[in-house]
Amino acid sequence: MLFFLGTNITVMRSRHSSRVKLVAISLALLTLQANAVRAQGSNPDPPANLQVSSVTSSSAALSWSGADPGVKFDVQVSPGNLYYSDVTSTPFVVSSLSPSTTYSWKVMSNKGNKSSNWVSGPAFVTLAPPPPSAPIGLSAGTTTNGATLGWQAVAGATSYDVQASGSSGSVANSNVTGSSMAVSGLSSGTTYNWQVRSRISSGTSSWSTASFATAVSPPLSPTLNSPADGVTGVAASLTLSWSSSTGATSYRV
């Protein structure tokens, strides 16, 4: 015979002891099964202590507590509706973010087919992108009145600003999309200083500087005055004369 006193079972032995033992074992099994069902049916604890660290122009580290054995997490980041499932460790680094952008995020716990509520973390703002590198490898191919200025292309640059100045004037050009620029209308035999910088949507690099000199224009041929070219019967001793040539520094006879 069985007497139930609270949560305990008192068994009074009778001649049917084998039946009593069977009932007691059955009750124990039912208790274990109930505990197992109760454990399987509970939702995991939601994440806590949500934090953001190591923010750059394109990434951020998200962290939280509550990473119990068997628990995985879903993470959602907006804008962009970035969704990550089955995250098992923290901090969790999200990448491919846009610079200078405010993001919100949330995370929930999953265990088996059970999930916690979503928990929102603190919003964060990605940094502005770093400025582009300054151009290098500056070069200049010159003529008497022009030059072709060149430089090595800078990764990520969308355009370039170019300036050149000399004693005869200056030239400037913005939003040059290639890695060279032709300059015309310069003075012959003149030294020019020039500079170039790379540009992205959010800013520019520092200037890179160099100089070049245009080629000197050849002087015009002088005009012979005396004696006339090809004349014969002249004296053995004579004086040769010709008109001066603009730009000439000396003459060869």
Which terms summarize this structure?
five-stranded antiparallel sheet, six-stranded antiparallel sheet, 253 residues, mainly beta, 1 helix, disordered N terminus
3D architecture notes:
The protein is mainly β. It has one helix at 17-41; strands at residues 2-5, 8-11, 48-53, 60-65, 72-78, 82-87, 92-94, 102-111, 114-115, 119-120, 124-125, 139-142, 147-150, 159-166, 169-176, 180-183, 191-200, 203-204, 208-213, 224-226, 241-242. The chain is 10% helix and 41% strand. A hairpin with a 6-residue loop joins strand 3 and strand 4. The radius of gyration is 44 Å and the shape is rod-shaped. Mean pLDDT is 83; it is low at 1-11.
The number of helical elements comes to 1
Kindly report how far apart the N and C termini lie: 145 Å
Rg over alpha carbons: 44 Å
Order of helices and strands: EEHEEEEEEEEEEEEEEEEEEE
Low-confidence stretches: 1-11
Percent of residues in beta strands? 35-45%
The main β sheet shows up as: 6 strands, antiparallel
Shape: rod-shaped
Mean pLDDT: 83
Helix content: under 10%
Structural class determined from secondary elements? mainly beta
Tally the beta strands.
Answer: 21
